[in-house]
Specification:
single chain, Arp2/3 complex 21 kDa subunit ARPC3, mainly alpha
Length: 206
């Protein structure tokens, strides 16, 4: 779901850079020095996830995005994490485009922050079942929001590309269900082996 060079018009590119830069600046402002290793690890995970494609009969394939997981673990720091990963993808593998880097950063990172705001408390609840419910919801909602922002930017694309989101709707609906389980499983794993990552060192399972 990367937006390539030459697709968006000037106003859409400007909006993407403005929104993306604001998110990155605020994320860096809130990021403590001790969080840098965690941000680097999640940035690498996001970078790698884009190469994991899920084949869909008759629809090609979609790749993992992990906005829900990024949001739950990083909060606002998801913006700089996503920026670095997308920049390297564009530079090394031509995924997306450098001119659309601002828009792509916002499309992927804004849903992560939204999931943090909506499901942070649930994912860190002492109740394991409540935490998994919140994590699963974040995984699904993150993909849905990313698709919605992606489609919104395509309203400012050149006319020949405006059909693209419609063709991507069904595959990403399926991806939302997949990421729901992946995010819930990952949060469950972190609760058991690295509760400090979620600030859950004092949790009592119920």
């Amino acid at each position: 779901m990367h937006i390539g060079d030459g697709i968006l018009t000037g106003p859409a590119l400007a909006a993407g850079w403005g929104l993306g830069a604001a998110g990155v600046a605020y994320g860096l402002k809130r990021m403590a020095v001790e969080q840098v290793p965690r941000v680097a690890v999640l940035s690498a995970a996001f970078f790698t996830a884009s190469f994991i494609h899920i084949p869909l009969p008759g629809s090609g394939s979609v790749h993992l995005m992990l906005p829900g997981l990024l949001g739950l673990v990083l909060g606002w720091s998801a913006f700089p994490a996503v920026l670095v990963a997308l920049f390297l993808q564009a530079l090394m593998f031509h995924f997306g485009g450098l001119t659309a880097l601002g828009a792509n950063t916002f499309v992927m990172a804004a849903p992560a922050v939204a999931c943090y705001c909506l499901f942070n408390r649930m994912a860190r609840a002492r109740s394991r079942s409540l935490a998994l419910l919140g994590a699963g919801a974040a995984g699904a909602i993150g993909v849905i929001l990313a698709f919605a922002f992606h489609a919104a930017f395509y309203l400012g694309s050149r006319e020949a590309f405006r059909f693209v989101p419609a063709a991507e709707l069904l595959p990403h609906a399926i991806l939302a269900g997949t990421e729901m389980f992946i995010t819930a499983a990952t949060i469950s794993f972190l609760r058991q082996v690295r509760p400090d990552v979620l600030a859950l060192s004092d949790i009592t399972e119920s």
